[in-house]
Amino acid sequence: MAQRGRRKGWEILKERACKKCHRIVGEESVCPICKETSFSNEWSGYVVIKDPEKSEIAKRLKITQAGSYALRVR
Ligand SMILES: [Zn+2]
Predict the structure, then answer these.
(1) What is the CA(5)–ligand 1 centre distance, in A?
(2) Structural domain contains residue 69
(3) What is the value of pTM for the model shown?
(4) 41 CA to middle of ligand 1, Å?
(5) Tally of structural domains, the chain
(6) Under the phi-then-psi rule, with left for phi > 0, alpha for psi from -120 to 50, and beta for the rest, what region is 3?
(7) Of 2, 46, 1, whose CA–CA distance to 23 is shortest?
(8) pLDDT tens digits along 18-71
């Protein structure tokens, strides 16, 4: 049987969204895209952008880099 790393119970990912560019960040303290440091837990709509140049949503949200983003951030 494959051995798994030790886990502290069931950890829920505290995902937050960057208030500036809407990028979903995990436990990072600085946004990898815009270097913003204010994040919000109150966001809705999850979108994964694979090809920003061909995506209408990416254009609307002014996303230039591939990744996961929130549609709305409060
Ligand atoms: Zn950002």
Answers:
(1) 31
(2) yes
(3) 0.76
(4) 14
(5) 1
(6) beta
(7) 46
(8) 999 999 998 889 999 999 999 999 999 999 999 999 999 999 989 999 999 999
